[in-house]
């Protein structure tokens, strides 16, 4: 990816957090419910297909970063195979839409790597609260933890893709 291209970061779930912008600039972000609670996997997938297609029609995306879905076997019983299947399917669908829209720079990021960059620790005690607090300290408004997680992923992606400016949000450099 070129350092001056816009990055779209997605924390994909039934409520998907997103963050978008060029490294060194203030990101845009939001949180989208893909389908009403209790909807089928197909309805959730259709919601992602519709949202991501519409978003990429009006926003140039040079790189797509997706939070890698976690293996349910290591989640300590906190998720089901059905949930994992849906999350993996949504990631596959996002990659498919990106390819169809001409976005060929697609990367997955491990959540622990993202948190290590964004918080300075890979496994904080209160993950969601600490990510939201860090976003607030950076002046990044967010409506929920999904949006905050996407902002953390976006900051990580900026550091990977544009190290000259992207490191500014890392705790090591006092980014705020």
Structure description:
By secondary structure, this protein is of the alpha/beta class. The protein has one domain (7-173): Ribonuclease H-like superfamily/Ribonuclease H (Nucleotidyltransferase, domain 5, 2-Layer Sandwich). Helix content is 45%, strand content 15%. The chain has 6 helices and 5 strands, in the order βββαβαβαααα. It has helices at 41-58, 81-100, 111-119, 127-137, 145-161, 163-166, and strands at residues 7-11, 15-21, 28-33, 63-67, 106-109. The protein has a 5-stranded mixed beta sheet. Strand 4 (63-67), helix 2 and strand 5 form a beta-alpha-beta unit. Helix 1 (41-58) runs parallel beside helix 2, helix 3 crosses helix 5 (145-161) and helix 4 (127-137) packs across helix 5. The chain is globular and about 40 Å long. The protein starts with 6 loop residues before the first strand and ends in a 10-residue tail after the last helix. Residues 172-176 have low confidence and may be disordered.
Helix-strand pattern, N to C? EEEHEHEHHHH
Low-confidence stretches: 172-176
The tally of beta strands, per DSSP, is 5
Q: What is the 3D shape?
A: globular
- Let me know the largest β-sheet: 5 strands, mixed
| CATH architecture term | 2-Layer Sandwich
What count of structural domains?
Answer: 1
Distance between the termini: 25 Å
């Amino acid at each position: 990816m070129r350092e001056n291209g816009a990055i779209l970061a997605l924390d994909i779930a039934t409520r998907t957090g997103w963050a978008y912008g060029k490294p060194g600039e203030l990101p845009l972000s939001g949180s989208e419910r893909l389908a009403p609670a209790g909807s089928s996997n197909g309805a959730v997938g259709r919601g992602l297909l519709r949202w991501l297609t519409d978003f990429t029609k009006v926003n140039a995306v040079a790189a797509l970063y997706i939070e890698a879905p976690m293996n349910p076997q290591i989640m300590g019983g906190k998720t089901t195979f059905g949930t994992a299947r849906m999350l993996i399917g949504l990631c596959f669908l996002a990659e498919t839409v990106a390819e169809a829209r001409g976005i060929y720079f697609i990367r997955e990021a491990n959540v622990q790597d993202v948190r290590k960059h964004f918080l300075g620790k890979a496994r904080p005690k209160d993950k969601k609260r600490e990510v939201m607090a860090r976003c607030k300290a950076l002046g990044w408004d967010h409506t929920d933890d999904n949006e905050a997680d996407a902002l953390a992923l976006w900051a990580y992606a900026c550091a990977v893709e544009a190290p000259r400016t992207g490191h500014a949000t890392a705790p090591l450099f006092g980014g705020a």
